[in-house]
Fold these 3 entries.
Entry 1:
Amino acid sequence: MSKILVFWEESKESISSVIIDGQKKEELMLLEPNVVFSSYFSYLIGTILTIIDELSHPIWEDYIRQGIRVFGPKEEMLREIELG
């Protein structure tokens, strides 16, 4: 169990810094970084546990976009993602 907690803390630390950087650049909405990380981590776990499509299946593009939305990108960033 302790390995999982270490992984959680290390992941939270590195991803939260990316979230904070995106907020400073005004690319992401101002949301609590720890809450955003927890939401993203939960999204990943739920996706891994429930999705049975092969990684080559086109639906994964939609899952990726949805995962990005958890971070709270501002509208102009979302448009860039959608137009990609």
Entry 2:
Amino acid sequence: MQIKANTHLIEVFRTEAGAVYQCEASNNFILEFADRSTAFKPGNFIDFSKRLFAINLAEMLCSPAKHADLAIIMPPYCETCFLLTITEVISLQRILGGAKTILHLNSILRTSQLQFA
């Protein structure tokens, strides 16, 4: 995890398509994706991740419908609506999956530290 200069944001995970930060001041997660930033409370971030990973990519690829290659996700308690292509869904899944892994690893390390302290 890296800290962004002169802010309360800690970088959780980054790819070439975007990043997830955690705000120390508000305990929110900030998603930077497609040239915009979206703030999530922790519970809403988890819910958004579940909705994103519930998208059936195989169905999107195989469906002959014209709109099948687009996914619409409206995060709870958020003014942002995500209209995603298949490649954007995959990119966003990589970002959120990486952030989830880093946060889980951080939790394991903190638990281990407390046990051996």
Entry 3:
Amino acid sequence: MLKKIKNAWPFLIIGFIAILAGGCTLFFLNHNSTAESSVKEANANAQVITVNVTADGFSPSHIKIKKGVPTQINFKKSNSISCIRDVVMEDWNMYLHLKRGSNLYTLQDLEPGTYEFHCGMYMYYGEITIV
């Protein structure tokens, strides 16, 4: 029995190192250090909001936008190593399946208030406040 453990020891170490290296690779590939959110005025009549979708959730998770101004939200998914595949907002009957890159959703007839959105699995949340 002791001889079997001695023979298996190198394989256990190699397996542990492989798992550790794979985990580090996934973490660093998914980490988006340049993720910045912004509210940009596309022109005098519209605003565009970028929400970065990462393994850690939505960034920013709290958004303020102007009432009465046509708005587009860009849910930007930088890679596919995230469990966030969908964005849902029941108040506006919004269901958006996310692909890698830009995912635009247009908001119209915005009334003042705070509205919640979440991923399809209800694990990550965000809020949109209309002012």
